[in-house]
Design goal:
By secondary structure, the chain is an alpha/beta fold. The protein has 7 helices and 5 strands; from the N terminus they run E-H-E-H-H-E-H-E-H-E-H-H.
C-alpha cells in the first residue's frame, strides 16, 4: 500500500506510562505499536532536556518540568483521553500517578511487569491486565484491534479471557 493511502483499520490512541530511564524502550514499543496502526501519544518527543546537562541536572530538569508545565500537561491530558494506557514497568511514582489518572478516567490500562517487579496494591488494582513482556502486550493490542476492526462482532466468542477482558474495556472506552 502506498504511504499516502490510509488504512481502514481502526486506530487506537495509546499512551505509554513509564520512567524516563525507560525512554529508549518506550520508543521501541511505540514504533511497534505504530506498525500495528496505533496512534501514540508520545511523551518522549517532549521530554528532551537541553544539551550539555549532567545526568544529575537532567534528572532535576525532568523532575521539575522546566518547560513551564508543558510536559506535565501533555502527559496528564494523554492519560485522560487515550483509548488505552500501557504501564511499562518497573517504573516510579510518576508512572503510577499516570496509571491512576487513566484508571480514574475509565481508560483501560495494560501493565507490562518489570523483570523483578511486584506491583503494590493500588498499581496492581488499577491495571486491567498484567503481562510479562512487551511481545505479549503487542500481541494483545493486535488482537484487540482485530476485534475493533470487525466492529466487535466476534468479541463474545473470544476464547482467550485476557483478550476478551481487555477488548471489552477498550470497547467501552471507545464508545464513551
Amino acid at each position: 500500500m502506498p504511504p499516502y493511502v490510509m488504512s481502514s483499520r481502526p486506530s487506537l490512541s495509546i499512551y505509554v506510562a513509564a520512567s524516563f530511564r525507560h525512554k529508549h524502550g518506550v520508543r521501541l514499543l511505540g514504533r511497534a505499536l505504530r506498525a500495528l496502526g496505533c496512534r501514540i501519544l508520545d511523551w518522549t518527543e517532549k521530554a528532551v532536556p537541553p544539551p550539555g546537562l549532567t545526568p544529575a541536572q537532567r534528572r532535576i530538569w525532568m523532575d521539575t518540568d522546566q518547560d513551564g508545565g508543558q510536559i506535565y500537561d501533555f502527559c496528564r491530558n494523554a492519560c485522560l483521553t487515550a483509548d488505552m494506557v500501557i504501564y511499562y514497568g518497573a517504573s516510579g511514582q510518576d508512572a503510577g500517578v499516570e496509571v491512576g489518572l487513566a484508571a480514574g478516567a475509565g481508560v483501560p490500562v495494560l501493565g507490562i511487569r518489570g523483570p523483578l517487579e511486584g506491583p503494590g496494591l493500588m498499581l496492581h488494582g488499577a491495571v486491567c491486565l498484567w503481562v510479562d513482556g512487551a511481545e505479549e502486550a503487542l500481541e494483545l493490542v493486535k488482537r484487540v484491534m482485530d476485534h475493533a476492526e470487525t466492529g466487535w462482532a466476534a468479541l463474545a466468542d473470544e476464547t482467550d479471557g485476557a483478550v476478551r477482558r481487555l477488548a471489552e474495556a477498550v470497547r467501552r472506552r471507545c464508545a464513551a
